[in-house]
Amino acid sequence: MKKIVVAGGSGFIGSYLSARFRALGHSVCIVSRQSGDVAWQHNELVEAFENADLVINLAGKTINCRHNETNRKAILNSRINSTKLIGNAISVCKQAPKLWINASAAGIYKPSITHPATEEEQAVETNFMAEVVTRWENEFFVFQFSKTRQVALRTSVVLGINGGALQPLVWLTRFGLGGKQAAGNQIFSWIHLEDYFQVIHFLMDETSLQGIVNCTSPNPLTNKDFMHSLRKRLKVPFGIPAPRWTIEIGARLIGTEPELLLNSSYVVPKRLIDAGFKFNFPQIDGALENLLN
After folding, report:
1. Is the pLDDT of residue 253 over 80?
2. Is the pTM of this model over 0.90?
3. What is the pLDDT of residue 123?
4. Distance, CA of 188 to CA of 62 (rounded, Å)
């Protein structure tokens, strides 16, 4: 039995990870401001982290909101502060955790429709989210431990059935609005939620991996092709395309940012593939069949 601590573990991804680790017989401790086992207090964190096999930090305000000044501060500060609290707690542990995985995001890479970004890509602050991820990772790597391996997991869109990005797209598709969005040539990088868990499990055993790791399917695809696959899986014969201007208006009406759909994210998991990781769902058709069967 291994000791797993999931910070920010009450959300969409954290709940799934916790359930999967418990199903394997591991001890799971949730750090949360709402309904967790441990509060975001230094002494409680230190006690929770003592002799842990894994600490994974998923904490941070959702980016699915309007990126006004107030929300921008909350998005950035929630990530910086949680990382700092965890690092400070680990630094005084007598038996430090073996592995600290800090969530990060593929949004740090320059948007592209032609060039797949690997971990070797030089990050460029081209927009707000790239700035957030850069500062987030900088805070993470300020900490350097002799007994705790550190991985910044640059994750693309995670597809699951109980939350995340898939549900609203399924709803739109079933109402005949599942056509391409804007030009449709923007690249959609994604990963199945179960593969996300398997990546975490793999990193626990693959002690050679540390630093930056891309967590995304090896087969990103265009927005047009993704929506086609989604319509096929849902048996919806047509989907009305959404021009850019309708996305911009609709995003404002529901309180989110149009760039979340319009930006192109072309990211591949080179380090995982080189280390021998095998995806259960490398192709979008298989992933959607599993999730929407």
Report:
1. no
2. yes
3. 76
4. 19
Amino acid identity, residue 245? W
Radius of gyration of the chain (CA): 19
Tokens in use for 234?
Answer: 């849902």
Distance CA 147, CA 65 (A): 38
Q: Are 148 and 90 in contact (CB under 8 A)?
A: yes
Return the CATH number of the domain spanning residue range 3-160+190-218+266-280. Answer: 3.40.50.720
Other beta carbons within 10 angstroms of residue 249's beta carbon come to 11
Within 13 A of 15's CA, how many CA atoms are on the CB side?
9
More confident residue, 81 or 37: 81
Do 18 and 12 touch, CB atoms closer than 8 A?
no
Structure token pair of residue 73: 């501060």
CA atoms within 13 A on the CB side of 60: 25
SS3 205: helix
